[in-house]
């Protein structure tokens, strides 16, 4: 198996085989850059709670919920 570059205990041959199996160093680099970009966006982007709140406010404005509440209060 060592003639094929496969090492049971690990080492450089295993690492080189793994990198080649996943597509080479370019694919590995692109994957690392993408993971880093997602991590940065997760830290500095909006939270899911804030995005949900904005969607709810937009929906309420489209449905004129505040006008319906005001009409209900006036009728009461």
Q: How confident overall, as mean pLDDT?
A: 82
Overall 3D geometry? Answer: rod-shaped
Question: What portion of residues belong to β-strands?
Answer: under 5%
Helicity, as a percent range = over 70%
Largest sheet: none
The strand count comes to 0
Which stretches of 5+ consecutive residues score pLDDT under 50? none
How does the helix and strand content classify structurally? mainly alpha
* Number of helical regions: 4
First-to-last CA distance: 85 Å
SSE succession: HHHH
| Radius of gyration (Å) | 27 Å
Characterization of this structure:
- The chain is mainly alpha-helical.
- Helix content is 75%, strand content 0%.
- It has four helices and no strands.
- It is rod-shaped and about 85 Å long.
- The mean pLDDT is 82.
Salient structural properties:
rod-shaped, 4 helices, single chain, mainly alpha, 76 residues
List the helices and strands and how they pair.
Layout: H1 12-21, H2 25-44, H3 48-63, H4 65-75
Give a short synopsis of this structure.
The chain contains four helices and no strands. The chain has 76 residues and is mainly α.
